[in-house]
From TrEMBL:
InterPro entries: MBL_Glyoxalase_II, Metallo-B-lactamas, RibonucZ/Hydroxyglut_hydro. Pfam families: Lactamase_B. SMART domains: Lactamase_B (SM00849). Residues 13-193 form the Metallo-beta-lactamase domain. Its cofactor is Zn(2+). This is Beta-lactamase domain-containing protein. Transmembrane segments: none annotated. One of its GO terms (molecular function) is metal ion binding.
Amino acid sequence: MLQYLTVPVTAFQQNCTIVWCDETMDAAVIDPGGDLPRITAAASGAGVTLKAIWITHAHLDHAGAAAELARALSLPIIGPHPDDQFWIDGLAEQGRRFGMPAGEPFVPTRWLHDGDTVQIGHCTLNVRHCPGHTPGHVVFHSPEAHRAFVGDVLFAGSIGRTDFPRGNHGDLIRSITERLWPLGDDTVFIPGHGPESTFGQERETNPFVGGT
């Protein structure tokens, strides 16, 4: 069964998440945006072995430390969708703009597309391409665990921003209603910032997409 631990990182308190198979104790880290000592300490404390890096999208607080972590531990970088390459190329500039450590550009070991899967130990997660916040944003869904790791697509009571380059509000709403809601009202989602919620709760109460 899939287990996970959320580790807030960077000044943006981004929800970096360590996910692992409780049979093999092999783990992936989703969105290592920074504060690598905190991430590796959390992995060590959980008794897991990091085997891969999974990226939902290439904003600095989600992908800024991916290249450094990949190099330090010889890990593959999986994701996001190739439409986010321009954000990856601009990681250093993002750091300068926000007064944060400059991210290091990289080329993922493997790009992800809608309908792909990723695996850690005996756990398989489905990939959904959910553009809008960024054009290459992806989401990881575990049907077995009824969990989805959604990055900055959807939050408890809110949705992702679409005022960044190549953001698109219409695409974001379609991503939520056409690619997240069908995963089931009982699915708990782990957003890129803030507390967890369920898709059912957001369908009922979220002022941006409630009732859709």
